[in-house]
């Protein structure tokens, strides 16, 4: 059996497991609704969060704790059907103007057209490290697990335990890496039809509103900042030193080959004087 076939079988198994697994947990103890005038709400006795967007405003939530390194997981079911113009954002971010951020943004599309998963990493308020992907499944029919693994060595974006992107710590080469500022988890559903779908050519169809995304099974296996002090769980060793092994690297390469649609490191028109320094080490 070829390696690509093994990867495909493993991916299908992970999708089935992700669809079937329903972790308990009341979200109210870990998360707060941030904004939306009632459009963001806990439902099913706190087992779900529903974010809604209409032509007046969107909505969002954030974590009660800030985290400095860890593995953050959440199951999300995105806006179905015609979601063009909408963005569902899911990210870690520190406070202040010189913020650090680890960012997923799910860019909606016309019915039948694929979502775009937009990723970015900011250090000191500077990003411009975009990579974009299509998905190998429909993210609107079932919940899927979206993860951020962040430790002093690396940042890994994972979907259903499949890595889609790695951003390595290259401070030794003079490249900033977020490792000093605790970050809070945020998520929001908002209108960005000036740029989100096909470069802004497709606008939000408000006749389809309200738009809704659903969240469940939040897990932060992470060092949390509580009452000004950092507290790390006993199991932190499982992620604090983790980097991709050979199998994970193979899955990452599979995603890059088959589903990556934009990589700032190969956008030479955008960077005519040369791509950012980290690109020479990440590629």
UniProtKB/TrEMBL annotation:
Similarity comment text for this entry = Belongs to the glycosyl hydrolase 16 family.
Enumerate the InterPro entries for this protein. Answer: Beta-glucanase-like, Beta-glucanase/XTH, ConA-like_dom_sf, XET_C, XTH
Q: Which PROSITE patterns match?
A: GH16_2
Q: Transmembrane segments in this chain: where?
A: 6-22
* Gene Ontology CC terms, in alphabetical order: apoplast
Give EC number(s), comma-separated.
2.4.1.207
Molecular functions (GO terms): hydrolase activity, hydrolyzing O-glycosyl compounds; xyloglucan:xyloglucosyl transferase activity
Residue span, GH16 domain? 21-215
> Could you tell me where this protein is found in the cell?
Secreted, Cell wall; Secreted, Extracellular space, Apoplast
Q: Which SUPFAM superfamilies match?
A: Concanavalin A-like lectins/glucanases (SSF49899)
Principal location listed in the UniProt entry: secreted
The protein's job, in short, is: Catalyzes xyloglucan endohydrolysis (XEH) and/or endotransglycosylation (XET). Cleaves and religates xyloglucan polymers, an essential constituent of the primary cell wall, and thereby participates in cell wall construction of growing tissues.
* Organism per entry: Saponaria officinalis (Common soapwort)
Name of this chain's protein: Xyloglucan endotransglucosylase/hydrolase
PTM notes = Contains at least one intrachain disulfide bond essential for its enzymatic activity.
Q: Which residues form a coiled coil?
A: none
GO terms, biological process = cell wall biogenesis; cell wall organization; xyloglucan metabolic process
Q: Which residues are glycosylated?
A: 109
């Amino acid at each position: 059996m070829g390696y690509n076939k093994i990867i495909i079988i493993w991916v299908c198994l992970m999708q089935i497991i992700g669809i079937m697994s329903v972790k308990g947990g009341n979200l109210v103890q870990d998360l707060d609704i941030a904004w939306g005038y009632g459009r963001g709400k806990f439902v099913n006795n706190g087992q779900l969060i529903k974010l809604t967007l209409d032509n007046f405003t969107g909505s969002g939530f954030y974590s009660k704790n800030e985290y400095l390194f860890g593995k953050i997981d959440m199951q999300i079911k995105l806006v179905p059907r015609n979601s063009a113009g909408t963005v569902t954002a899911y990210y870690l971010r520190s406070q202040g103007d010189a913020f650090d951020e680890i960012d997923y943004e799910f860019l909606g599309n016309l019915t039948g057209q694929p979502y775009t998963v937009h990723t970015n990493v900011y250090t000191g308020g500077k990003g411009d490290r975009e990579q974009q992907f299509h998905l190998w499944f429909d993210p609107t029919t079932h919940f899927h697990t979206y993860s951020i693994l962040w430790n002093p060595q690396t940042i890994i974006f994972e979907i259903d335990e499949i890595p889609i992107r790695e951003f390595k710590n290259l401070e030794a080469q003079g490249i900033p890496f977020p490792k000093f500022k605790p970050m809070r988890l945020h998520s929001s559903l908002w209108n960005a039809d000036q740029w989100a779908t096909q470069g802004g050519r497709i606008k939000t169809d408000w006749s389809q509103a309200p738009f809704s995304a659903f969240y469940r099974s939040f897990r932060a296996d992470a060092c949390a900042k509580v009452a000004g002090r950092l507290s790390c769980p006993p199991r932190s060793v499982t992620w604090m030193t983790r980097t991709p092994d050979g199998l994970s690297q193979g899955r990452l390469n599979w995603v890059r080959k088959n589903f990556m649609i934009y990589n700032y490191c190969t956008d030479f028109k955008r960077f005519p004087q040369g791509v950012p320094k980290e690109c020479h080490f990440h590629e």
